[in-house]
From TrEMBL:
InterPro entries from the UniProt entry: RmlC-like_jellyroll (IPR014710), RmlC_Cupin_sf (IPR011051), Uncharacterised_HutD/Ves (IPR010282)
A Pfam family assignment: HutD
Protein name as catalogued: HutD family protein
Residues spanning the signal sequence: none
Top-level division of the source organism's lineage: Bacteria
Gene3D superfamilies found in the cross-reference section: Jelly Rolls
Origin species: Rhizobium lusitanum
Length: 189
């Protein structure tokens, strides 16, 4: 179990140079954009335009702040993504562009290297105590809003807890909006 405080997240330029991303966690530790197995980050998007292309990567986007955006992913119908939308999975090597709905947004971006890892992302509302079931592998719990307590560790907005879950249940208490990110290694590597 590792607590990743919001104040310690790493800031770095986008791959395409069009903005800045805040890296929450990456594996292996210290891996760059060409070497990671999986990566969880946030980005502020202030203008319409193309997304960076990541060959061999699957990604899931969720809107954290702002009105949202419409994504144009090659081979798919346009997708409107807002704070109320479910996290949206798609191939990061498909040419993609976005049009903002009404001003700047911040998104949550989860990426895994296809063929090596898979991931899932879901929103969780906590008001009291809930039990989160995780898959085997690594689970990250990102506190989007509010405050949560997990195993005597307190999470505030944008803090993240990294768990080597092993398919266990985790008790979470407090009043918070969370994202649960499960990452699994493929068995045939």
């Amino acid at each position: 179990m590792k607590l990743l405080r919001a104040s310690d997240h790493k800031r770095m330029p986008w791959k395409n140079g069009g903005g800045e991303t805040v890296e929450i966690a990456v594996s292996p530790d210290g891996a760059g954009l060409a070497e990671f197995d999986w990566r969880v980050s946030m980005a502020t998007v202030a203008s319409d335009g193309p997304f960076s292309v990541f060959p061999g990567i699957d990604r899931t986007l969720s809107i954290l702040e702002g009105e949202g955006m419409t994504l144009f992913i090659e081979g798919r119908a346009p997708e409107r993504l807002t704070q109320a939308s479910a996290p949206l999975p798609f191939a990061a090597d498909a040419p993609t562009s976005a049009t903002l709905i009404d001003g700047t947004i911040t998104d949550l971006n989860v990426m895994t290297r296809r063929g090596r890892f898979t991931h899932s992302v879901r929103r969780v509302s906590v008001d009291g105590t809930v039990s989160l079931a995780s898959r085997r592998g690594v689970t990250l719990i990102l506190c989007h809003r509010g405050h949560a307590e997990i195993a005597k560790l307190s999470l505030s907005a944008l803090d993240c807890l990294l768990l080597d879950a092993g398919g266990q249940e985790t008790s979470v208490s407090g009043k918070a909006e969370l994202f649960q990110i499960d990452i699994q290694a493929n068995r045939l590597r």
